[in-house]
Design goal:
Length: 96
C-alpha cells in the first residue's frame, strides 16, 4: 500500500481522515491516546497540521509491522523522535 502525503497548513477532522485513508473515529481515538495532536480552530474544532499525516502513516506502519499496542506505539514514536533529534544534533556539530 502506498500513501501519497500532501501537506496543507491544517485540515478539518474529515479532510484529515480522508487524506490519510482512515475513518474519523480512528483519528479521534489516536488523539485520545495522545498519538496525534490537533490544534483548535476558532470554533474549538480540531484541526490537523499537515505534518500529522506523516505521523499517522508511521503509526499505521508500526502497527502493521510489529505486534504493538497503541501505548507501545507512542513509546516507539517518542524514541524515534529522540533519535532524530540526536542525529540532527550530531550533523550540526563541527567535525573534530
Amino acid at each position: 500500500m502506498s500513501l501519497a502525503i500532501v501537506y496543507r497548513e491544517s485540515m478539518s477532522l474529515d479532510a484529515f481522515a480522508a487524506a490519510a485513508g482512515v475513518h474519523p473515529q480512528l483519528v479521534m481515538r489516536f488523539v485520545a491516546l495522545g498519538l496525534l495532536e490537533p490544534v483548535r480552530g476558532e470554533r474549538g474544532e480540531p484541526l490537523f497540521p499537515g505534518g500529522q499525516l506523516a505521523r499517522l502513516a508511521r503509526i499505521r506502519r508500526l502497527r502493521a509491522a510489529l505486534p504493538l499496542n497503541y501505548a507501545a506505539v507512542g513509546v516507539v514514536l517518542d524514541l524515534l523522535a529522540r533519535i532524530d533529534d540526536l542525529e540532527e544534533e550530531l550533523r550540526r556539530r563541527p567535525s573534530a
